[in-house]
Automatic annotation (TrEMBL):
One of its GO terms (molecular function) is phosphorelay response regulator activity. It comes from the Bacteria. This is Stage 0 sporulation protein A homolog. The modification 4-aspartylphosphate is found at residue 52. Keywords: DNA-binding, Phosphoprotein, Transcription, Transcription regulation. The keyword Magnesium does not apply. It comes from Aminipila luticellarii.
């Protein structure tokens, strides 16, 4: 489930877009405090932003510039100011697309899906892997679920990456031990069990109880 952040001061439009995109399987939040846009972005970590140009306090170009200093997340400008000057300005500030109001919600959805496919699905190595509501960030070794996030140790990260890449399938204990043994420190069967137990406790902290299933005599899986 990809997260979309709407930065739009017309709350009728924001709620309408939120409802529509939610029906398409996106997790959507919109800004209500326009003094805390960057803080909201940082805490929510969206995979795509819909940005109006005219906003309270600072305009969309300002926030796009601020976000670009810390993230390359796709930013789609949505504005009634659709003249060439504003479109060029939006692209120069780091925007990825520009949609003119009024717009068709289905067209908006199609554009969002296309940008997300280009940004995440077709990369040789995606920045994130999502499965059943949990998001593994490969860039900073964190795991997010709903509004909670945990930092992962090197072993936590290696285990989860293998399990996410084989989501819905059983990963053998030998395969997991091989991944943990990448730094040449010997890993035996007991060490793997200890690491899995610790990782499960961390997952419980963010509401992911029983996320890792044991397949007796074979290995582990997430489902």
């Amino acid at each position: 489930m990809y997260r979309v952040l709407i930065i739009e001061d017309d709350f009728v439009i924001a709620r309408s877009v939120q409802e529509h995109l939610s029906n398409w399987g996106f997790e959507v939040r919109y800004i209500e405090n326009f003094k805390e846009v960057l803080a909201e972005f940082t805490s929510y970590e969206p995979q795509l932003i819909l940005m109006d140009v005219t906003l309270p306090f600072f305009n969309g170009y300002h926030w796009c510039r601020e976000i670009r200093q810390i993230s390359s997340v796709p930013i789609v400008f949505v504005s009634s100011a659709g003249d060439n000057l504003n479109i060029v300005m939006a692209m120069n500030m780091g925007g990825d697309d520009f949609i003119v109001k009024p717009f068709d919600l289905n067209v908006l959805t199609a554009k969002i899906q296309a940008i997300i496919r280009r940004t995440y699905s077709f990369q040789g190595h995606a920045n994130i892997i999502e499965y059943n509501g949990a998001v593994l960030n490969l860039g900073n070794a964190t795991l997010s679920h709903e509004d909670k996030k945990i930092e992962l140790t090197k072993n936590d990260f290696r285990l989860l990456q293998v399990l996410f890449e084989s989501a819905g399938k059983v990963v053998s204990r030998d395969c997991l031990m091989t991944r943990l043994w990448e730094d040449e420190n010997f890993v035996d069967d007991n060490t793997l069990t200890v690491n899995i137990t610790r990782l499960r406790k961390k997952l419980e902290e963010i509401g992911l109880e029983d996320y890792i299933k044991t397949k007796k005599g074979i290995g582990y899986m997430i489902e």
